[in-house]
Structure formats: structure tokens, C-alpha cells
């Protein structure tokens, strides 16, 4: 299905402030509105206006200035959407209608680059001259949404009652082939890489901080763990108090928005993912924050709690005979089994954290509490 997204007043505008259309090639719900939520209101920044069967007529229209696509919707599996784009661009080049901007709506890194690579690869095989023209004139901005929702929300709707996707914070590279959209709530930037790097750091760190203690507490999915106030508060405190001060936030971004994206990602996108799949690697991203925390006289309690849980988890795996012998050499396994509950800090991934006295003292304290009280009472005392 191909759907026209027609611009609402004061939204999709060309430099001359004329109205422009946006075409989506994908399989979205046919009466979806894409919304920007503010406290007490919902504003619409794009809406499905019609469903049609002639994608060539759609995408070759001079009024169309932006085409959105999704690699995750499925059509790219047989390159149909890529060829739709090529046919439309070939016709527009022939008629003088000019290029349009192609925007990916996928929640993947460098999503615009991914679409561009597919389109140019197909064009290079079928029409090298067209490929050269696309490479020089058509833009594929990378985008990043800081709140992803897998389904529409019927509480967010326009006057006609059509449901919407809440899209609280979106970042788009400011590279447009034809006309510049005036999208309220969208941050336009020169390069999306610093924002993606920051988000990756937040998400990766959050998985480590949540995974080991939640697994020990008996939770098996992120959604289950974060439904408990203790884990939600613990992770929020870490991101806000411990990680955010160590992180250089790119211009125009707010650490609160990144934190909300992390919670949204864990709750919605991977909420049903089995936590045990996160436990195959050491928390090295956490370890790398410790020197910076030391330099700033940071609060080690939450990191110490995580590392105590990590040591507890490793000891349990050794007792079960389930520890990966390839990842942990014999000398590391002996350290994990040692009666000295700080000996595991000398295993290869943790590299002498025992030399940070305050951190080591807190880890010893939490390991004793875990032995006697368990995870949840220890976490409650920490909070």
C-alpha cells in the first residue's frame, strides 16, 4: 500500500511557503496521524490523506517533495520500494520535476544512509546515469526518534478521531532536496552521529545496570523489571545523577529526552526480550565511567550495587557449571570462586577495580547484603 501524507497548514512548506505533499511507501495503518504531543494538547504534523494504487503517479507529481520509506515494513526484502523510487526519480528527471527528499522511518542507526545505499546499488546495476544523478541531487537525511511506539495510540487523535503515533522528540539531518519542512517539535541538525552515539551509550549502559540485578531478583524481561518502582527509580537515578553529568550532550538535545527514550525502548521495543540475552558480556561500559566518576567525586552506590550483582551472578554461574570457559580463563574462575568477595574484581573484564577503595568497600557491603537479604531489600536500602 502507498499512502499520501498531506501537509497540514503551516507544516510541510517549500522555501516559498507553498504547500507540499509527503508520500509514504509502506504498510502503515491507512488512517494514521503522526503527532507531536505537548502537555494538554496534540498537534498533527502529518496525516494519511488517501490510499492509492498508482505509486508512479504519486511520486512523480511535482508537488511531492518528501518520500518516506521503511526498510522494516518488508517491501525492501524484494527491492520493490527501491525500484518504485528509481522509476519515480527517472520520470522526474525526464520531465524536469526535480528530485525529492527520501526519509527513512526505521529505528536503526544511520537509517538514511542505509536507504541511500540500497537505492544506489540497484540504480548502479540498472541505470548508472540515473545512479549518478541520484547521488548528486537526491538527499537521504538520517533521522532519530527519541520515542518509538510500535502501535498507534487511540488517545492521540485529530478532530476526525484517527489514531496517532506519539513522536515526542525527533532529530532530522537538515539535508533536503526540494523544499524545507516546517515541522514543529523536530530538531534539525547538521550531523546526527553525536546524537546516535549518546543514545547508544545510554541504552547500552541501561541494559547493564538493569540486567544483572533484575535477573537475580527473578525478572526475565525488561518490561517486568521496570514495572517495579524500585528498578525504575534505580535506573532513572543512575541515568540522571551518575551518567548524565559525565556525558556531553549535543546542542539542542536534553538528557531528559534521552532518558525517556531509554525507558521507552526498554518498555516497548525490547520489553518482552529475555534479560538473559544481555548477560553474556561484562559491564565494560560501566567500568569505563568509573575513572570519570572518581575525578568528579561521584556517587558510587549504584555502580557498586550493579558490580556486586555481577559478582553474585558469576558465582552462581560457576556453581551451576554454566560459565563460558572460553570467555573466562581458569584463573578468572578461581577468582570468582574465592571466599574474598572482592577477588572477582581482578578478573580480566574488570581490570583492577579493587584499587578504587571507596568503590571496593561499597561492593563488599552490597555483596554481604545480597547474601543475607537478597536483591530487593538491598535495592530498597540503596534507594
TrEMBL record:
Instruction: Return the InterPro entries for the record.
Output: 6-PGluconate_DH-like_C_sf, 6PGD_dom2, Mannitol_DH/Oxidoreductase, Mannitol_DH_N, NAD(P)-bd_dom_sf
Residue ranges of every copy of the Mannitol dehydrogenase N-terminal domain listed in the record: 56-181
* Ranges in a coiled coil: none
Q: Which Gene3D superfamilies match?
A: N-(1-d-carboxylethyl)-l-norvaline Dehydrogenase, domain 2, NAD(P)-binding Rossmann-like Domain
Q: Name one Pfam family in it.
A: Mannitol_dh
Record GO terms (molecular function): oxidoreductase activity, acting on the CH-OH group of donors, NAD or NADP as acceptor
Keywords from the named record: Oxidoreductase
The UniProt record lists the keyword Oxidoreductase: yes
For this entry, the protein name equals Mannitol-1-phosphate/altronate dehydrogenases
* Organism annotation: Siphonobacter aquaeclarae
Organismal lineage: Bacteria, Pseudomonadati, Bacteroidota, Cytophagia, Cytophagales
